[in-house]
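Work package 3, deliverable 3.1, input record:
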Amino acid sequence: MSINSSESLAADSTDAVAAEGGAARAVPHSAPTPSTPSERLLILEPGRAERNYWSDLWHYRELFAVLAWRDVAVRYKQTVIGVAWAVVRPLLTMIVFTIIFGRVAKLPSDGGVPYPVLVFAGMLPWFLFSTILAEASNSLITNANLISKVYFPRLIVPASTGVVALVDFLINLVILFGIMALYGFAPNWQIVFLPAFIVLAVLASLGPALYITALNVKYRDFRYVIPFLVQFGLYVSPVGFSSAVVPEEWRFWYSINPVVGVIDGFRWCLLGGESPLYVPGFLVSLGVIMFFLWFGIRYFRRTERAFADLI
Amino acid sequence: MSDVVIRAEGLGKKYLIGHQAERERYVALRDVVGRTAKGLLRSAKDMIRGRQLVAGDEVEEIWALKDVSFEIRRGEVVGIIGRNGAGKSTLLKILSRITEPSAGRVEIRGRVASLLEVGTGFHPELTGRENIYLNGAILGMTRAEIRRKFDEIVDFAGVEKFLDTPVKRYSSGMYVRLAFAVAAHLEPEILVVDEVLAVGDAEFQKKCLGKMGEVARGGRTVLFVTHNMGAITHLCNSAFLLQGGSLTFGGSAATAISRYLRHAQTNFVATFAPNPQKPSIIKISIDPDALADGDLSVAIAFQSPVELRSVVGGVVIRSATGSPVWGSNPRFHRDKSVVGRGNSGVLTCHAAKLPIAPGQYYLSAWLGDWQHDFDCKHDALFFSVDEKQFGNRPSSELIGYLEWPGEWQCQVTSDPASTMTTTAISIA
């Protein structure tokens, strides 16, 4: 987000407060100069958006790391087989999907890719997406005690939950490589783009997650919406099947689901050109992802200052 | 001008609260369904408009803080006093950026660390060591800073042996000590502290106060909320008095305290529901007319499910800052003549010309017999002893609660040392 839009945001919400309370004043843009550079002048006003929001976020990077580390550490404490849980879940899902879509429904794979590999390559980004969506959406509520007692940029909380999902993701990636080796399937040069698609998957989930977690603070109903959404999404996204089975005239519109672009991208990277990237559809997904990200961050920032009052 | 670190202008904070309308005694299913539907419709409407949901039938705006303006200079230690609900915590929350003001403006220079709760973010599953890093980061310390102070923190908390034990296995005392130890090693330019002194045992509180004093002497700016007036007089050079959300006084700590106490409600009578299981105090009163004459006259009404053979009452007076001033109980005086007998009755205590200094006091009442304690009502009454004449008496916190003038004489002599034996201070 550019500085421009954040300032217009400040003006927007100040107007809103002024209309409501009638007591707020316009934000003067020239603050008095601080006496020493080391001591930043901080101004708190209704509806004032932080001008150095992003540098503030950078300043709190250690807290981000610590919170992410906490979530990872806590996740595997007091579990017997620990990390194995991260293995069992996708492996079983893969088997079920391979049987249902590959054997029962007899859907075709992409080129010569073994069906389990196709499924797993789709499941990787799906689990990354859905885990972040589910965890981040509840993150503010589960960290309510922090929100109401300490200040830090609230964006850190949902963002740090993404790290846990990434750890699981890396474990799964190793499993995928294992399965690929088992089938004697080697990835191609496209694999170098994998990191970019991982980032894309994270951004795709963070956008809606930020929006929902902010809404969740205000209306707890969204806690119940998420599991449903995730379950639903598993079937409307090309996880258990290749998106090539979608009829050609629908593929463009199918890509409005942002996960479609992410999964297609993953398969393109991992399956070494066996599943070609449908570019117009991918661009649509990309556009939708960016829109949601912008929208999510915008909504989150607009409401985050009131979180402590509502939580 | 440059050493003003916090400047607030017209600060206000508004909250919405809901009220439940009066309910009929007997409700029909039809009414309940109708009401629920109406409520649902209203919440749906609010949600579509993106407004906050408020439970209840009527929504009211309250200003938890209204038009508060002040300036705090570098190195000042400011106490914030006021009754519950006066807006103290709201003010701290705004200053520590947890919540944004609804009106007004604050300018803050320097790094603010707020300590609104001891052990914020402690995770029970993590070990002591891990929690030190976690809590430190949450309070705004960098990893390097925590590593540097790690030994000091562990030492202060006294938990070396349990560093690698999950804190859920800690005793509550250890938990609080560890939590405070982390917080105590924060070194911000501005420290904002809420009633954290209220938790823990007496020793812990003393330790907290000691550390606060250290921080204050270290030249840092400190703002803290407490009900402990003693702490304010010891630590603060100035204090703010908040009443009903407005700042009614800002200035010397002693004046703020005396103003606060003057506005505190006095009550001469308190009634309690009788306890059907055991003997209990049902009413306590002070005779205001006697008080005006300088006598303390207390009556304690009691009721018991069984006949009592030797009822005894007791009273203790504490100063508004919490120090015990005087107490009386026939049990202390071994006075068996006043023992009563029966299921219910009134115990009275008259202390003629009780020499307590003008000021505000709490009265606690106790009920028992020669062996047992039945009931105790702590700080049940709050009364004030008015100044008899206009004087220059310093705060009782400084010179004590006994108003008992010594008889002074002055003898002019050229050889004071040898006349010492004859000069005496006699007490009237």
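The two ends of chain B are 54 Å apart (CA to CA).
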